């Protein structure tokens, strides 16, 4: 990811505090893990862009650790390890870069489209899906030689639509939440890793002038469509943080925004039912009598490209198609063809002195080689150069999201195309401005603008129950 998406993925130092308890966080246990990590990631210095190289870990005394991060819990602190991993500055836009790349290679994509039925030839051959356009309510049929169900935590419910006995078994789902605090709890030089009394790691991440804390891991038994973050889950995370980080004073009122998601726990399913390249994630439904259907479950964002490659290897095996070797690990993503990302950002600021440096920094990193489209929109209509976030984001991004990035709802615009809502509610004035701009592009009437605003506010509100 560092290679193919250099503007989105950056190495970042993580400081993992050691403590006498729990045992898993003992200095020597952590150190042996770090040495193994360094050995396994032996190729971490072979990056296309030299600024992306990842150094080996180092060990700090308790005093050194406190000088870097004074808010570490002092009791029990025996030292810390500093190791490097990567952070993605905008996972949603990185996902979009994959979608845009697929388009550039001839894929056809569609959003706001829900699979409601499988198309079958006879009882056993899947030939496509019926999807509902959630905005127009219209149904469409999509045909394919192979259908891949990559519905994540919904995968079992999607399989259930095929209504075959013995499949569509219920997945075990676990929820994970994150909170963003109003104030910074850590210095922005490191991510800070800590461990709960039960031995689960959690991280405090410097995040655009705030601190992002997460995640949790708790079984969720409801329908994934009904999932939402609750006040109880926020309070549980706060208790865990207070028990192992800082002075124990973090409270609900410090939370600016909270969001969560579900993971499918594929490991708990029986291994024999999976035809898998790694950890039973790729499942050929032909073994259940549904030929032409493959189900992909689990994995991580980090390993998703590799998972996709292995899924296509199974497609090749099943169909005998001559697909050639995968090139996706060797080509830049769309908008990411940047050999030296720091030089690219500096140049963007130099070339566009009519925009604030933080605006150019934001645009260069989050839009990569496509940032010129936003700059042109703002030059054609000066109103669109209005800055709407502390990071320097401008209104032109909203127009670009609608015209170029298939965004048709306000939540998509503020949460998945721009960063306007990703730190929580940016304030009524900004939201209204963005809604009216989007409405102008999309022909929304007053009622629709009001509905979009209400939907967005309900997502951005910190839960009170
Ligand atoms: C709290 C949390 C923290 C995480 N942290 C990390 C991390 O730090 N690093 C990392 O690598 N990974 C992390 N992950 C895991 C990572 O987010 C997932 O591996 C990744 O999102 C899986 O992608 P996916 O496309 O398989 O599933 P998803 O991202 O869940 O996508 C499934 C999609 O299917 C759609 N869908 C559902 N039903 C239908 C239907 N009927 N028709 C059409 N579409 C449908 C859903 O709307 C959804 O968009 C984390 C996950 C969680 C929950």
Would you spell out the secondary-structure blueprint of this structure?
Layout: E1 9-19, H1 27-40, E2 58-60, H2 62-68, E3 77-88, H3 91-104, E4 113-121, E5 125-133, E6 139-143, E7 147-149, H4 155-160, E8 173-181, E9 191-195, E10 201-207, E11 210-214, E12 218-220, H5 231-244, E13 255-264, E14 282-284, E15 293-296, H6 304-319, H7 341-351, H8 357-367, H9 371-380, H10 396-404, H11 410-417, H12 428-442, H13 446-460
Helix pairs in contact: 7-8, 9-10, 10-12, 12-13
Bound molecules: flavin-adenine dinucleotide.
Question: Mind telling me the CATH superfamily name of the largest domain?
Answer: FAD/NAD(P)-binding domain
What is the succession of H and E elements? Answer: EHEHEHEEEEHEEEEEHEEEHHHHHHHH
- Total number of helical segments? 13
The average pLDDT is 92
Radius of gyration: 23 Å
Quaternary structure of the protein: single chain
- Low-pLDDT runs: 269-278
Largest sheet: 9 strands, mixed
């Amino acid at each position: 990811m560092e290679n193919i998406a250099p503007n989105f993925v950056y190495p970042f130092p993580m400081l993992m505090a050691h403590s006498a308890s729990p045992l898993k966080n003992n200095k020597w246990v952590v150190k042996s893990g770090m040495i193994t990590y360094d050995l396994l990631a032996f190729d971490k210095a072979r990056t296309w862009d030299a600024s992306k190289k990842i150094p080996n870990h180092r060990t700090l005394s308790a005093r050194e650790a406190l000088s870097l991060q004074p808010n570490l819990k002092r009791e029990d602190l025996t030292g810390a390890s500093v190791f490097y991993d990567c952070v993605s500055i905008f996972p949603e836009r990185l996902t979009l870069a994959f979608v845009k790349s697929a388009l550039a290679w001839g894929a056809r994509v569609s959003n706001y489209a829900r699979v409601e039925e499988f198309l079958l030839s006879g009882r056993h051959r899947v030939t496509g899906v019926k999807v509902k356009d959630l905005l127009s309510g219209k149904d469409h049929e999509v045909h394919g030689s192979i259908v891949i169900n990559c519905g994540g935590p919904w995968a079992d419910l999607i399989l259930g639509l095929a209504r075959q006995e013995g499949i569509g078994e219920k997945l075990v789902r676990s929820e994970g939440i994150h909170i963003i605090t109003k104030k910074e709890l850590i210095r922005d030089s490191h991510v800070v890793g800590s461990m709960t009394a039960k031995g689960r790691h959690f991280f405090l991440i410097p995040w655009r002038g705030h601190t992002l804390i997460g995640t949790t891991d708790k079984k969720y038994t409801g329908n994934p469509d009904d999932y939402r973050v609750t006040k109880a889950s926020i309070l549980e995370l706060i208790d865990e943080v207070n028990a192992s980080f800082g002075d124990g004073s973090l409270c609900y009122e410090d939370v600016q925004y909270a969001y969560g998601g579900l993971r499918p726990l594929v490991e708990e399913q029986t291994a024999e039912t999976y035809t898998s390249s790694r950890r039973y994630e790729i499942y050929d439904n032909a073994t259940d009598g549904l030929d032409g259907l493959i189900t992909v479950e689990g994995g991580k964002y980090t390993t998703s490209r590799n998972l996709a490659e292995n899924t296509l290897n199974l497609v090749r095996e099943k169909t005998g198609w001559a697909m050639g070797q995968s090139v996706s690990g060797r080509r830049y993503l769309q908008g990411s063809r940047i050999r030296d990302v720091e030089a690219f950002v500096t140049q963007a600021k130099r070339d566009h002195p009519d925009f604030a440096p933080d605006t150019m920094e934001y645009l260069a990193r989050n839009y990569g080689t496509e940032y010129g489209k936003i700059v042109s929109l703002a030059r054609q209509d000066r109103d669109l150069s209005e800055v709407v976030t502390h990071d320097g984001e401008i209104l032109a991004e909203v127009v670009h999201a609608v015209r170029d990035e298939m965004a048709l709802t306000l939540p998509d615009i503020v949460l998945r195309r721009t960063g306007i809502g990703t730190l929580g509610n940016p304030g009524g004035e900004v939201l209204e401005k963005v809604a009216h701009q989007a409405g102008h592009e999309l022909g929304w009437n007053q009622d629709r603008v009001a509905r979009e605003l209400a939907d967005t506010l309900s997502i951005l509100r910190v839960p009170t129950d």
